[in-house]
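User: I'm writing a tutorial on reading structure tokens. Could you give me a worked example: one chain, its sequence, then its tokens, then a sentence or two explaining what the tokens reveal?
Assistant: Sure. Here is the example chain.
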Amino acid sequence: MHRDAAAYESDTRSAVDSYATNRRREAEQQVHQQLADAEGQARATREAAEEMARRIEEEARLRGQTLREESKAVEERLKNALIGLHRMTAQLEELVGTPTPPQADGESLADALKPYGQRDGELQPLLEER
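And here are its predicted structure tokens:
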């Protein structure tokens, strides 16, 4: 009977060890699988973020290029308008005759056609009146 008990104990211990080994192997496999899944998700998230950053940078680059082109077009139109105004001033002075001395207020036709910001000392008095 003692031999039977020892054999039963040995068989039970062997079964428990085998069961524990199998469970440990399954747990390790599960951990490795979860780790691989997490690394895959992290890689996919990083790649998506990098792609989004590339798209944002490209859109910003294109927008900057568009703004530069638009500002060049506006500058060109302003330059052409200024040239036209200079021609008109010359034609008006030619029609009027030789330029007359500045009027009592000291303003010539060219000065009268200038925007306030470009007139000599004229903007300051306007601001002081307020």
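What the tokens reveal: The chain is about 80% helix and 0% strand. Residues 2-98 form one domain.
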